[in-house]
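Course assignment 3, question 2. Fill in each field.
Student: A.L.
Task: Predict the tertiary structure for the chain below.
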Amino acid sequence: MNTKSRILDVALTLFSEKGYHSVSVAEIADAVGIKAPSLYKHYKSKRDIFDAILSEMQIRYEQQTSALQMNGNNPTTDAAIFSSVSEDALIQMGIGLFTYFLHDDYVCRFRKMLTVEQFHDTELAALYTKQYTDDPLSYQSQIFSMLGACGLFRPANTDVMALHFYAPLYLLLTLCDRAPEREPEAILLLEQHIKQFNQMYKKENTQ
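Answer field:
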């Protein structure tokens, strides 16, 4: 790992342990094993480091969704993909994303940082809401709207559908954050949840 990448890795660890505002640039540099002036050769400020962490998060997410044969950001692209996959394939996609968010160390540290900082920083609280509530619900609502328009789902409020689909996933994710030993139980519930969601909303002739 080069120095620039190590700065991000160390900074994220410190942010997740102490909170973003409680960590100084000097402390990051010291943990990396360099002087602060050397750190500034790579990043202009602590905020610059944070923004680079966000960019790295996006890169990792796109790599994971690509490996699962989906886009992950574009509802139009993914609606076309989901319209033709089997229920078993959809379950495997769901489990793949769930275990990625649960086990990717970078993602876990980032989520831990935002969980802590949401009570101290309104900007990071807003980012937490955007990252783990607003964006996923909007993305899924758009997908369900498109799938409904092409006749795959029964007519329904797609915002509520998105809530029905996403809320259990996030609940199980936070459960496993606190109790890792319950992951097998969570995976089983996730599989059952996807099957039951299809039973509730998918038209019978599209099964």
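Instructor remarks: The radius of gyration is 19 Å. DSSP finds ten helices and no strands in the chain.
Grade: pending
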